[in-house]
Design brief:
Four copies of one chain form a homotetramer.
Chain A (H helix, E strand, L loop, with lengths): L5 E2 L1 H6 L1 E2 L2 E6 L2 E4 L12 H5 L3 E2 L1 H7 L4 H5 L5 E5 L9 H4 L23 H11 L2 H8 L6 H8 L5 E2 L14 E3 L2 E3 L3 E3 L12 H12 L3 E3 L7 H5 L7 E5 L5 H13 L4 E5 L9 H9 L22 H5 L12 H7 L4 E6 L2 H9 L4 E4 L13 H11 L3 H4 L1 E4 L6 H9 L4 E4 L1 H6 L3 H23 L12 E2 L1 H4 L11 H9 L1
Parallel strand pairs in A: 1-6, 3-5, 10-17, 11-12, 12-13, 13-14, 14-15, 15-16, 16-17
Antiparallel strand pairs in A: 2-3, 3-4, 4-6, 7-18, 8-9
């Protein structure tokens, strides 16, 4: 189906602007003029290679097959002839200089010396590129929610019961119909290839070995089918950003269902992107995207900075609302979970709409600063609508870093928890890193279970935790009155 | 009307003491002997130029027309003859050395790299003079209120509702009868010329472009009419310090009404100046005002230091009280708002006195340290007298730095908020800086609205915020019992 | 009455041990063998000069008259003949080397540049000797109470009332029958001569000029009569440590009554000395007391360190109890106030015993660490026994540093407050420093009064402060059950 | 009974692997092949000396008699001939290099300059080996419990009563039937020989002099009988880790009873070892155990790191449960106390099971991070089951560092408290250090008693402390519902 017409370098060189933009990718020549503005990673990076060979940059992020499955056939302009003399012109071959701090694998300490999730984070901060670090580690404005996500866990005390036979401690459970060995899953995060060439595939390999479910991002570096096919019998979920072009979303849902995915997690907390200032600033100072030499891309450097997260989210539909639940149900037979729910009020709505579960999440604190730490929302459910725990599967993510954090969520009714950034920092060491990280978390979780005196996750219950330090901050009403009714009441 | 009598340098030089003090300002010779002690900026700076040409220093702060509109005709002694040989005597021309750290425009980073209000503050701290920085950034004694003004906002969690169609988010509202594009206004702050030569005019230009209301200070660098005339159709308010000389205040109110101002904000929290130690200390160490070489001004360096804020407030009437509301109403037809109210008790009084609104404010923490953060006072109104929200317009200032701060105030019933220092730090880049700053705040506010799930400001309501962490500090009684009744009760 | 017998250096030199210890002080020769162990400043410093001329060291701390009024006539061995050749032997004259960091008056910044109490503290920390600094600034063990004394004031918000005519603000009040200009007094602190040669006299001079009452310490550097006689019409109080030798206390009470003192403050929170580790450590490292060359004093360097405060308190009677109130009443006609009361329970007892007042104090955090901050005890009185405010005068000390602190205490029912360390740091500049410090505090207090909207101290009342942040820590019962009744109740 | 067969170096050298492992210890040759894997200190340290003379290393930790009392007779291979020429081969004699930072006694400051428990801790941190420091000072994961153990004491205020005759203050009490001079005992901690060659014997010597009870660890450096025999009339307790091999525990209990021990403290909070990351990391980086040159020990460097605490606990039985109380009672006639109880629920169970006491302890924060600070558990007993105080002896350990901490526990019903790390840091100075440390604690305790106004420990009661700052975190229910009943309730 590929276009075999041979195209010479001299021809390619002419299409070097954002109005007329051709790129060579792995021996094929593509006209990306129309696609570029829709590129999840932003148009700038495409314009940077206008009229050049972008194979190396492309391969460092994307799977080979991604272009041919996503672009129109007519955009394939033909084959690139590597025998063409001009093709070896170093001037032409060499892309404009990009950020120099490369991933230095050699600089990483031996994997065995990493003994907790913070160790992985520390290594990542020193070994991935500055832009990648800014993109993953950043969060909304003043980082209040990001930090409270974790620190609120530390304000919950256990109430351990001793003198129980704790020889055995089983961490097995069932998530959305799938048997798993551990009550945590990989939360979806974009483009794992930024960290490791095998990206989501390496995550899948590590998770499959250890029996950990993986949720694949809409912005994954590989097509979903490519990832799932590497681990045929493994439980995968798919995270969906609903596209402004609903047909595109429908097509995608059909594809992932065919790819063997077991459930859909629809992200609902990002109708517009958050303001992640660290991400925005890297562009302003030094990011590669800024140094676009030959196109209108400079004009696209907007007043807000150079946020990768913001650029990437351009296709997300801000009109998504509860009335779309019907459409979602029509578009897939898989269980549907809403990811990013932040109030008891919305969890009840989700229950009333018959959804299969919710992920209490604030997107790792990346979207709205001072949105509530997830553990606070979990406590809100316990207080205001405990019935949801028997009607839906309640998951928690944002801020989970320790086995104790996991156990606390489970004691308070969560079915399982998600971890996003920690898995990205683990895949820095490939599949082996993912396995080592999972073993660390398993060990922490088992130790915590034994030291509070339980043998299985079913035995976790609220009486094992003392949440009084947080209970003070848990609302006692749903807060659903609108301003009109509030003002009326206040007049009485 | 000007006095055309020509006056020679030799004559001017003789009037070089504070008992007999003439200055040249832009070709006119003025006798400022009587005016100097009433100078809002202090007498010292005038005495410094006694018998000299003060044009340069004057123009850096004030508008050309200010002298002729504020001084008596008889104080104009005549014209200064620049052809006079002695007029070019460098010894005479050159004023005594003043502070050397000048406003270095070149040192400012490009405006586009500033992405939040703290960036503007940081730039200002490095590029305005030390005295200007001390004057604007300082606050009362131990800075407890100044810091809590902001940090208390960070202790309020949102309760976002997801799955709402948030394609549209309108920030329009109506303040004191004026349609505006954004629910925040420029809080009055003295002498913007210290930061930028166009001062309040640059603020007006930026605000007019963006539809933001501006409140002009009694101590503005330009006469009100000069500012308002630059933006004829724009909503301006005027901040009034009531003068010990009430007739002066009446004249001023008539002028500002004629100048097209739409409302009066009467400052009530500064009957005496606060103790702003950073402002006081600059004099003690290095401020220009200290180096007065030739007059009694040295004797005016008092035991408290060199506070510009304190010196400037000398004319404010500490006897202002509720019985003056009648006088205020008589003196202007414009809506009257009390600025600086800090208790539910006083807000109720304001309502009972039929005032049009209040600004809950502690003067940015500049007057009484440990006065309550404004958000605490807003919560107090919600608890103790919610009826005021439907009877008056409630505004909030002090500590607003983020779009989330604004939205929280609006959820709790505020009509709009004021920002003072942030606008001064923005005008450091002139009108363009003001526009960029407003765009940043608009973007933060719109993002916050969308991420909590609302489309317009009317939809903001208390159920969208979790204020439990602050509710503990909100009084449950008005606290109006005096000591006698307290002691009597305690005897029971 | 002096002994005129002439004594030669050769004779004096023989009495150079702690078993036989003569010293020359200002031309008199004293046998201090019996007195040394009772010396409030410790025996070591006396033994250091055994057989030598101690005039210089003596005069740096004590008044000339102190020896003759405190020692037995028979201990005066005679006159010292300065014409004696051996008297000018530098070897004999020169005392063993003492600490080298002297009071460098030249190093002090100009008094006018000090604008708050912390400035005085900072200067003192740099200009008094290390031992003096350790003695005054130190507090018990982990400094928790010392620091909370101040920080708890910062957790009280004012509830200002605006639009009151605040032209006038009177700080006058009446303390224990004495009219004073300000509602604060000098809390007793030992040996002000360590800071300034005029010590308590300089304090008295400054206080008299400004109308501030002064409480003189049992361990003052001058006899009480010498201090009071310098300011005949000024209100002085006397702080009493009850002596193990009750007759000594009776004699002292008679003397101070004769000296014109107006009230007695009996310290009750120091039956044993607190553990002030900074004070203890200075000896261990470098203090002068350590370097006693010629006596058994070395053996007195005990295992606890070298605390001046501890050494000084050796004569205090730990058996003092409520039954001694009768004895106190018998021993003086003056009003009696208990200083150091720390519970509502004891304040009620004091009321029942008919005492005239109490000072809520924890000795500046110097005795028992985690004893309650005084403001907490004041709140406890408001909650548990408000009737005491109309039956006794309630004073507060420990941690007062700002005018706002004073006003908060007065709003909560205190009659006046005491300040100890701040006055010592002020007398570092002599009487002039004391006056400047008082003016600073007066200005802060008046400003606070005006900004909360009151004209006189009588108008202060609880409704002007929001103490909710501390109310959580105020007990709701007296806590007077003993363990037996507690255990019995718990069995029910 | 020893085997007198003479064995030459050449023979010994052959048994130099972990499959065939002989060591010389003090002239005896031992075959440790079978024992090594059960070695409480880990096999690695034994394999390190395979085929060599390990006397020096052995003696630095263990008592001479330990081997012969713990090993089978047949493992004694014979006598080592020191006259053997090869025995003086320095190559053979010298063990592989171990960690170089040795205990430098010279580096310690004079004992008299240490005035509180933190001083001892500081000296230990600088003078013991890095591995010893890591082992003793480390705690579980994020150190939250370790730090809160102490800081929560600092949030309790005293409510002192003054004007009591406090000349006398008796610290005597009775613990588990034994008269002691002080209400604190040595909490069990492993291998004191790491700190001082006389280890637990030096502790015993110091404690006996001062009348302080000592609890000996299962992992002590000396056999219990050797320790107790040095201080015949002193109260010792024994801490038991129940062995997977119950017969071994039974034998041990018989031995310690014979050795004169007065009570058994069964540790129940360590069925599995905690994750002490500092301890784990020392191996990973530099610890001696890592550098095992000639054996399979390297393979034992597992993925978790090199924790000494974890290695040492391998024999502990995780199946220990309440049904084993009967077995414990059968195995000893001594009083039995459970150590490590952390909930009111378990304390009640202990009472119902007829046990003699409990130690509220979280193992110094070393096992489960965010397990509750002991003082919180003590407050929970006061709230939920105060009847236990009259039915059992309640002890507290974890975080006691000051005399005030002790007194607070006693006021809240504890019979006595334990201190572990502080005593280890004290024995750094041998028995003399222990005595000095006890004197410091006694002085702090007596001072605290006097300053709150009591003469004996029986007078301590809850009314002397204000625990409101912690009461907020004390549960009001036992929390014994399991998840099933929780879910059922929530459905109602």
């Amino acid at each position: 189906m590929a276009n075999d017409k041979e195209i010479r370098v001299d021809e390619i060189k002419k299409h070097n602007s954002d109005q007329d933009c051709w790129l060579v990718v792995n021996d094929n020549v593509w006209n990306l003029t129309e696609f570029a503005p829709q590129h999840p990673g932003g148009a700038a990076i495409i314009y940077k290679y206008a009229g050049r060979d972008a194979s190396e940059a492309y391969n460092s992020i994307h799977a080979p097959s991604l272009l041919s499955t996503n672009l129109r056939r007519e955009d394939n302009k033909g084959k690139f002839n590597t025998a063409d003399a001009a093709a070896s012109d170093p001037e032409w071959l060499k892309p404009p200089p990009t950020e120099t701090r490369a991933i230095e694998v050699g600089a990483k300490p031996p994997l065995q010396t990493l003994i907790n999730s913070y160790d992985f984070e520390g290594v990542a901060s020193r070994t991935v590129t500055a832009k990648t670090w800014a993109f993953y580690s950043s969060a909304a404005t003043d980082l209040i929610t990001r930090d409270a996500n974790k620190s609120m866990f530390d304000r919950i005390w256990f109430r351990p019961r001793l003198m129980r036979d704790v020889k055995h401690a089983s961490t097995k459970t069932k998530i959305l119909g799938c048997e798993v060995d551990l009550p945590f899953f990989v939360s979806p995060a974009a483009m794992a290839k930024l960290v490791h060439p095998d990206g989501e595939k390496a995550l899948a390999a590590g998770c499959a070995t250890k029996g950990v479910a993986q949720c694949i991002s809409s912005n994954a570096s590989f097509p979903v089918g490519e990832i799932t096919s590497t681990q045929p019998n493994h439980p995968f979920f798919f995270q969906l950003y609903v596209n402004k072009d609903r047909a595109a979303s429908e097509k995608l849902l059909a594809e992932v269902e065919a790819a063997g995915v077991k459930a859909i997690m629809v992200t609902v907390d990002a109708p517009v992107p958050g303001k992640r200032e660290a991400d925005e600033r890297v562009k302003a100072d030094a990011a590669a995207l800024q140094r676009v030499p030959n196109s209108g891309a400079t004009a696209r450097n907007d007043n807000k900075g150079g946020g990768l997260g913001r650029t990437m989210g351009g296709y997300i539909d801000p009109t998504l609302s509860w009335k779309d639940v019907k459409w979602l149900r029509r578009s897939t037979k898989l269980p549907i979970v809403l990811k990013g729910v932040q109030s008891a009020s919305d969890v009840k709505l989700a229950m009333d709409y018959g959804l299969d579960g919710v992920v209490l999440s604030n997107h790792g604190g990346r979207n709205l600063d001072t949105s509530p730490p997830s553990i606070l929302t979990l406590l809100e459910l316990n207080r205001l609508c405990p019935e949801v725990f028997s009607r839906m599967e309640i998951f928690v993510d944002s801020g989970i870093r320790r086995g104790t954090d996991i156990l606390k969520c489970l004691c308070l009714g969560a079915k399982a928890v998600g971890m996003g950034r920690p898995f990205l920092y683990a895949v820095n060491y490939g599949a082996e890193g993912v396995e080592h990280f999972i073993e660390i978390m398993r060990d922490e979780l088992e130790t915590s279970m034994r030291l509070v005196g339980i043998n299985s996750l079913e035995e976790a219950h609220p009486g094992l935790v003392n949440t009084l330090d947080l209970d003070r901050f848990v609302p006692s009403t749903m807060g659903d009155d609108d301003m009109k009714s509030v003002r009326e009441k206040s007049k009485l």
